[in-house]
Amino acid sequence: MTTTAPLTSYGPLQFPDRADLTLRQFARAQRLELIPGPDVAGSRWSAAVFDDALDRIDAIRQAVGAMPDLGAVRAEEHLAERFSMTVHSGTAAELARRGHLPVVGDHKGHPLYCGLALENLTDRRKVERASASGQLHMRDAAAKILGIRESDLDHLVRAGVLTHAATARSSWNKHDVVLLYRQADLDRVTRSRRIDWTAVRSTPKGRRSPLAALPTQKRQTAGR
């Protein structure tokens, strides 16, 4: 049996390789402060730090978990499979909004959600509530949920009563951006006392919407 000789210091690839940790586990262990940062010049770790980590390696592996940090789609697919339920697009962001699934980085501008938190998320009710509130809808579906015309919804957006929660690329033209509206925001708008919903919903096609009277939201000036 060949034994690898110990080193006097360990680099960012040598440390996890010799400790039998993946690079992801190694990075997460540092983020959780289970392994300290480099203590030797040149961004290396001393043998003392390595040996200390090796003595605790089983506890470190258990603490960092096995699941990598995931994007929204893969995180939602994982939850759907785990709980055998429908998990709507927008659930991961809603779980993050509620403090159950931290964002720990990004990939090509899209958030990465903590794999460890995802692995430890075992409360089905939290996922159900997040899926219901965080579900995303395109413009036509959002208008249908509110029981209004799409042009009426445009007035709500213009007035700042409703704001999109996310965007996506159009399936027809990848250069077009589609605005997506969150279910919880639609529910909030329906409770607004600023709006006479009966009047809005009873306005026939081709007639001026009562929502046209809403003042246009002023845009924030850059730097303010």
- Beta-strand portion reads 5-15%
Portion of residues within helices = 40-55%
Please count the beta strands (DSSP E, at least 2 residues each): 7
Distance between the termini: 67 Å
- Assign the structural class, choosing from mainly alpha, mainly beta, alpha/beta, alpha+beta, or little secondary structure: alpha+beta
Radius of gyration: 25 Å
Molecular shape: elongated
Q: Can you give keywords for this protein?
A:
224 residues, alpha+beta, two-stranded antiparallel ribbon, 12 helices, elongated
Quick description:
The chain is of the alpha+beta class. Helix content is 44%, strand content 11%.
Structure description:
The chain has 224 residues and is α+β, with helices and mostly antiparallel strands. The protein folds into 3 domains: 9-59; 72-134; 136-213. Helices cover 44% and strands 11% of the residues. It has 12 helices and 7 strands. It has helices at 14-19, 23-31, 47-55, 57-64, 72-83, 91-97, 115-120, 124-134, 139-146, 150-158, 183-190, 197-202; strands at residues 9-10, 45-46, 103-107, 110-113, 136-137, 166-169, 177-182. The strands form 3 sheets. The chain has a 3-stranded antiparallel beta sheet. Strands 1-2 form a two-stranded antiparallel ribbon. Strand 6 and strand 7 form a beta hairpin. Helix 2 (23-31) crosses helix 4 (57-64). The longest helix is centred in the middle third of the chain and has 12 residues, at 72-83. The chain starts with 8 loop residues before the first strand and ends in a 22-residue tail after the last helix. 27% of the residues are buried. The mean pLDDT is 92.
